[in-house]
Amino acid sequence: EERVSRAPAPAWPTGHGDVGASLVLVFPLLLAYELGVLFSGRVNGADLVTRALWQAAGSRAAYLALHAAIALAFLWWIRRSARWATLRLDIAGPVILEAAIYALTLGAVITAVLDRVLGPLGHQLGLGLDGASVVGALGAGVHEELVFRLGLCGGLVALARPLGPRLAVAAAIVASSLAFAAAHHLGAHGEAWSTHAFAFRALAGAAFAAMFWFRSLAHAVYAHVLYDVVVAATG
Description:
The chain has 235 residues and is mainly alpha-helical. It has eight helices and no strands.
């Protein structure tokens, strides 16, 4: 029976989870985001793929047709790789439930830590939960986890292997989390610098990286999406 996360130490720099199973669980979120972009006009900063696909398609109809083809190809891959079991409720349900617990506790824990170290930041008003904020949460959860956790953290673990497995993972988590935090302050649309914001995102990045490595990519993606939805709804 296939599981999204498993106990044995990973042979590849992708953590303890089954990456293939995670991709099956994450794909519906990715597809919802890609279609939501059409109506919200909101593209995640880490998402270079959607911009490239839109430019290549040239029109909304072609963009939709392209994603229909991608969805069919992914369903074909799921069938060929015998991964339908991943979508069963007894497998997907616990992953999403565990991710929801992380999402509901992450902000409070990090805020409590930073309040003790840096002092209270003060209440921040959220933007409210609407279609655009949900699309933004989907984009951040999927693309930022693929880029900073699967790509960067996993890649750094591979590069740092000569240091030994434990030190390599620790170094990769720290470095990828700092890069994740810094990326939010770069570019024309980057957020204005603040020590609180940088520290918060660095700690959040470390938490997502730990979820990715010790649980699975799917745990990290769903936790990130749900956390952003909670922030938008209650900020």
